[in-house]
Amino acid sequence: MIMTDKEILKAFNQKRKSDLRKAVIRPKFTLHKEFLHVIATLVIMVICLYFASALTGVGFTVLCIFLFLFILSQTKNILLLLIFLYQRYAPAAIRKACLFTPSCSEYMRISIIKYGVLKGVRKGFRRIRICRPPNGGVDEP
User: Fold this and answer.
1) How far apart (Å, rounded) are the C-alpha atoms in residues 57 and 70?
2) Which of 50, 54, 56, 116 has a C-alpha 20 to 30 A away from that of 26?
3) Has this prediction a pTM greater than 0.85?
4) No. of H helices and E strands in the chain?
């Protein structure tokens, strides 16, 4: 029996609807290392800003450059912490809407770890942009 294009599309759409109702299972992971890096960054920033009130001129400029570079070096950990918080506390209706496996947030987390901040975020946003019907399925970074 040969199926027409309309029959194939109808079968695909019915399968897609049943897939959307399934529960999304997220991998369990902890973020102790990244969380500690972010907390250390915040503590160092507060200490530096406390002592910055006594500095003027060149000392203040050097301190600002140091803080900028320190925050820049912790961007990866801050992004991973934000993704972790999204995966933990975002409403279930939003998290279950992803059509891909792994989910878009998990894809971005893996991409950031695998490729670094710039390329990982770019790949993650590209994935979020295409996360709508008729796209979907298994897509590893």
Assistant:
1) 20
2) 116
3) no
4) 7, 2
User: Quick check: 19 and 136 in contact, CB under 8 A?
Assistant: yes
Provide the 8-state DSSP code for 131.
Answer: -
Are the C-beta atoms of residues 98 and 106 closer than 8 Å to each other?
A: no
Structure tokens at 95: 């998290």
Specify the residue for token string 């999304």.
24
Q: Would you state the structure tokens that stand for residue 100, as one six-digit string?
A: 């891909």
Q: Within 10 Å of residue 23's Cβ, how many Cβ atoms?
A: 7
Provide the residue ranges of all domains of the chain, joining segments of one domain with +. Answer: 30-89, 91-141
pLDDT tens digits for the chain (141 residues)?
555 556 655 665 665 555 545 555 555 556 666 677 777 777 877 777 777 667 667 777 777 787 788 778 888 888 888 888 888 888 888 888 888 888 888 899 999 989 999 999 999 999 988 888 788 778 887
Position 74: which residue type? Q
Tokens representing 54 are 């006594």
Q: Take residue 71 and report the two structure tokens written for it.
A: 């925050």
